[in-house]
Design goal:
This is DZIP3-like HEPN domain-containing protein. The chain is mainly alpha-helical. It has eleven helices and no strands.
């Protein structure tokens, strides 16, 4: 009986730890990034700057455009980490990471530019969201929050915030008493975000496959047209028609 109780308690604690780091990724860090973009990109300039940027103008999703179109009324309150990362990166709103954006390895401990910390936030968000194991030990929890608080302290200084304003949010989240309803809410939000990420990735893969298929067909159509142009005596037979059909099918 006592062994079962201990196991249940331990499992509950591990899931609670996951809820803690999950809330940091889905709420606390977005709040900080919203402060950064609010300081660096006045709301009245955002739409014009985004539409003038070739990459952003062509690659934002419909829901992201909705937030941008409504920024004058709603501010940056609903902007999440992926969207703010795109905006900060492509509008050059902060000093970039030491090794550049989306480098193949994470920023080193000695690399502490604002861009380095934004890169850390993006990577940490993705890592937490797509963890294969939703159970987080106390040791791993401590490691996460040590990193979180270091980032918070540096970004406080960058934004000119009072010392401890961001860091205290992580301190409270790490140590607060979390009831079952709050834990359940945090975990459900993580599940929703993870499923949305997966669905968007699949949609992008399908779009890329369609584009590749169209490019393949277009390239072969061009080859056939050039072939016919170069040989005006080209006579199509049933066999040739079949080959062309198979290429373009």
């Amino acid at each position: 009986m006592s062994g079962t109780s201990a196991m249940t308690s331990s499992s509950g604690s591990l899931m609670t730890n996951y809820a803690r780091i999950g809330h940091a990724a889905q709420q606390v860090f977005p709040d900080i990034l919203q402060d950064i973009i609010a300081m660096e990109e006045p709301q009245h300039r955002l739409y014009g700057d985004v539409t003038s940027n070739r990459f952003l103008n062509r690659n934002l999703r419909a829901d992201e455009w909705t937030m941008i179109n409504n920024v004058s009324a709603n501010g940056y309150v609903n902007f999440d980490i992926p969207l703010i990362y795109k905006l900060v990166r492509n509008l050059n709103l902060v000093p970039p990471p030491s090794k550049g954006w989306d480098f193949h390895i994470p920023p080193a401990a000695t690399e502490i530019l604002p861009g380095d910390d934004i890169e850390r936030i993006r990577r940490t968000r993705n890592e937490i969201l797509h963890r294969g194991n939703a159970q987080v030990s106390d040791t791993i929890l401590t490691d996460y929050f040590t990193s979180f608080k270091d980032i918070a302290t540096r970004l406080e200084a960058y934004l000119g915030k009072p010392k401890g304003e961001f860091e205290q949010k992580f301190q409270n989240l790490e140590n607060c008493c979390m009831d079952e309803d709050t834990e359940k809410t945090y975990l459900e939000r993580l599940t929703i975000l993870r499923e949305r990420d997966i669905n968007m990735s699949k949609a992008l893969e399908n779009i890329q496959k369609d584009l590749d298929s169209l490019m393949y067909k277009d390239s072969h159509q061009l080859e056939i047209e050039e072939w016919e142009e170069q040989n005006k005596l080209f006579i199509k037979t049933d066999a040739v028609d079949f080959v062309c059909f198979r290429i373009l099918d």
